[in-house]
Amino acid sequence: MSGFGKWLGGGLGFVLGGPVGALLGFTLGSLMDGAHFVSSSNESRGATEGDFKISLLVLMACVMKADGKVLKSELDVVKQFLLQNFGEEGALEALGILKNLLNTDINETEVAMQIGRNLNYSAKLELLHLLLEIANADGEVHGTELNVIERISIHFNIDKNDFLSIKAPYFKHQDRYWAYKALEIEPNATTDEIKKAYRRMAMKYHPDKVANLGDEVKKTATDKFRTINEAYEDLKKQRGIV
Description:
By secondary structure, the chain is mainly alpha-helical.
């Protein structure tokens, strides 16, 4: 798989060790014959684009296996997601790795804790956002999928309000207060509190926070940034804020 090194971008760091490394050993070993990788120390370089994408695939497998079965329709949905976000070459390579992961026993707690220790907070928020995007690709985030993503959030030590903020847009047709949750404020918030919350959340989820993880990840982060704007516009309309 000659393009794999290109897809990984900055090489691999922390994912080559610990439970994630053990999990990927056979898969990566079979791909390394025709590719060149850069193994980097997370302590010296920080998490790389490759680390983030491998982490996404491992956690994606956890979510897809949540109900005990993986349907072809689910793989088709995931393939389309990968194509839209990582290009044709990257998507095909990622799908090959994902299929191997789906046939492998994964200790969700161990891999989530390793990933959580090695990614910064903004990167972890973006991982959760992408997992919810994938779960919602068929138009609904199912309970089993949501439970897995919430457990991953806990292993990541994500603040409960931050998780509710990420989750809120996917339930906006069921929850009249979704915009408040997206901005991490109460329904009785004042106009001034709403404006302050919007500025705070816009800074927290600005795509530049994950720019070091590659253009594709920065692009996906823009979607979360848009939901913050959508929530603010929704509340402005409800409240008559100018």
